[in-house]
Amino acid sequence: MRDVSDELAVGTRLARAQRGDEEAFAELTEPYRRELQLHCYRILGSLQDAEDLLQETMLAAWRGLERFEGRSSLRAWLYTIATNRCLNALREGSRRPQPVGGAASAGHGLSERFAEISWLEPYPDLLLEGIADAAPGPEARYEAKETVALAFVSGLQHLAARQRAVLVLRDVLGFRAEEVAEMLGTTTASVNSALQRARAVLEARVPTRPERLAVPVTRAERQMVDRFADAFQRDDIDGIVALLTEDAVVSMPPEPEWHQGRRQVAEFLRGRHQGRKGPWRFVATAANGQPAYAYYLRSGDRWVRSGLFVLGVRSDGIASITRFRDDGLLWRFGVPETL
Fold this sequence. Notes:
The chain has 339 residues and is an alpha+beta fold. 45% of the residues lie in helices and 15% in strands. It contains twelve helices and six strands. The protein has helices spanning 2-18, 22-29, 33-44, 47-64, 74-92, 150-156, 161-172, 177-184, 188-205, 219-233, 237-242, 262-275; strands spanning 244-251, 258-260, 280-287, 290-299, 302-314, 317-325. It has a six-stranded mixed beta sheet. Strand 4 and strand 5 (302-314) form a beta hairpin. The model is unreliable at 95-115 (pLDDT under 50).
């Protein structure tokens, strides 16, 4: 009985919205805003771009609501708009993986699969509340926690735009091939072909399953992260390196820095420590389903928020350290501007 009444309520709100009732439109679309923004982020790799595309999606949906005939669900219709808006943005823009030769310091053995994504931005866990654990469609291939990890989102950016959209719609959200074909205005055969190519490229780009880089769940992993953050804050390079995995990676988008392995990471951290004036302080937060720390540098009598570290954690140690500057995004992570 509740399902029937819910459907009637949705139908009533839809009819009101199609007559120009903005409040009814907001009630219809509000439940999908966060997941649509995350969808745009996966495709674009940028939180700022995802926010802009969400607004474009909602405006397009409002303007086109009269033409919504209900042949698909409202959710699928909104995903159709959002996906095609993202594809248009990719066609009009210049977001492409950097050339491999310029993506890392010389001598650090960068392989193509790790080419840096200069526009990559972190995604606050605060914006994942209510959607990170939502059950995807029956044909989804990945768990929700995998598909927000930095490694996964970065890997997606190496796919052609249409392949990227197909993989997210099929393997992340679980839409059927026929549904995706209708969303993208193509054939089921084309969707299946694009998906096969996308899977092959992504598996080569993301050698470590992203779910192994998520927020620590065991007590030992949490203690390891705490020890790592403490050592990092104290500039205890030996203590940091002792907690790294053998294949640990440091990257700093958009800077062309990429270092892998304990020895190279240690050399890089020592060089950075010598170039940094004064101490720093860390404040815990979370990004992309991974532990993260906002860092603060001394400025006069205050500590000023300056950037963010996102950690990839495995049972055998810290597998990745990704540093982002504070380019006007960190207020979204719930950390203060100054201490």
